Amino acid sequence: MRESGTFSHREPGSACGPRAFMRALWMVFSVLATATVEAAELTAPAPSRDFYFPNTEELAPDEMRVIALGTGTPHIRPVQAATSWLVELGNGDKFLFDVGTGSLRNFAGLQISYNDVYRVFFSHLHVDHVGDFDALWASGWTGGRLRPLQVWGPSGTEPRLGTRHYVETLRDAMYWDYATRSGILPEIGSGIEVHEFDYSQAQVVYEENGVTVRSFPSVHILDGAVSYRLEWKGLSFVFSGDVTPNKWMVEYGKNVDLLVHEVYMTIGQLMEHFGWDRQMAMTVSRRVHTTPAAAGEMFSLLQPRMAVGFHFYNDPDTAPEIEREIRKAYDGPLTLARDLTVFNLRPGSIHVRQAVTPQRTWPMVPDREDFARAKRAQPRKMSDWLRAGQLPIDIYTRPEDSGAGAQ
């Protein structure tokens, strides 16, 4: 079990020669080739493999699994989607914390039914934290969700800055999409229920089935950002969202099992890679986000069982410098997360590894009979003149293509 030290995952071939690269590549292919056998033989009471293969490990009754669906910035790229974290509990409950742009692609690789992931918590309304919410709504509806999405999120200093306004206006903007699917798909899957709460108060915003989720204020550019703490069966998870060091995190983030806390890039990295001048780099990294050095100070204050940094470009030429900055103040367990980093938490252990996901997946549709029986709305009709322009090409009217006369 890996419970201390730094979890680092180096890209094959980075800072190593061709022979080492081929050896690493062969090891990955060997693991993939034996995945089916390992899944069938897995009887260990706790995770013991170096990779996580979706749907091959049942959670124990006292186990929590947290998966990074997106760990990057607003500038999404092939190896990093924007912020999103999935929490799965041994009681079957699943929660999404933020749904940043591109993150739903990683979610699809986990082959989890959309019907099971309908509780979503927004930390704030930046696009890199909510940019895939429209896709979650539409993909979940077309993928068989038979319940409304449930969204928890903060208010703002005026209604237009709050979660309810964001969701309702987004639904209005997507009305054509809704109108074309309504009547064909179960109507209940199109629903969205918003639970907006006061961003300025530390409070319990969700309490059900033994799970408690508490929100508390976050300091990030403008009023209306929050952080969260989830507790269940003695296990705890804190998600900072975007944040600068603040007193609420010190109060509510202490002694947590898994602390997922923003760690931004260094000032030098912002200047070199983004082309910013020093003043802009200092302003953004210190007044808007948390620098690696400041994150180290926060980790030292909070003393989590495992500290997790995200929201930076996790590359071979950036991660070592970020880790060095963190380590100036913090010497405890640390993971610099990548997309699809997986954490299995139990009372006595934290196991960290990477998920290996298939690329060609289909939605995990729930019970087909329930889907077929679910109530539909009255479908809208196309204009007669537009329908009249359709060419009468229909292979299903031909006996040879309809199955008629089949032996």
Write structural notes for this entry.
- With 407 residues, the chain is of the alpha/beta class.
- 30% of the residues lie in helices and 22% in strands.
- It has 15 helices and 17 strands.
- The chain has a nine-stranded mixed sheet with strand order 2-17-16-3-4-5-6-7-8.
- The longest helix has 16 residues.
- The protein is globular and about 70 Å long.
- The N terminus and C terminus are likely disordered.
The CATH superfamily appears as Ribonuclease Z/Hydroxyacylglutathione hydrolase-like
Number of strands: 17
Strand order of the largest sheet: 2-17-16-3-4-5-6-7-8
Sum up the overall morphology in one term. globular
N-to-C CA distance: 59 Å
The CATH class assignment is Alpha Beta
Report the CATH architecture.
Answer: 4-Layer Sandwich
Annotation field: number of helices: 15
- The structural class is alpha/beta
Task: Please outline the major beta sheet.
Answer: 9 strands, mixed
Number of discrete domains: 1
- Estimate percent helicity: 25-40%
- Rg, rounded, reads 23 Å
What is the mean pLDDT?
A: 87
pLDDT < 50 runs, ≥5 residues: 1-44, 402-407
Instruction: Please state roughly what percent of the residues sit in beta strands, choosing from under 5%, 5-15%, 15-25%, 25-35%, 35-45% or over 45%.
Output: 15-25%
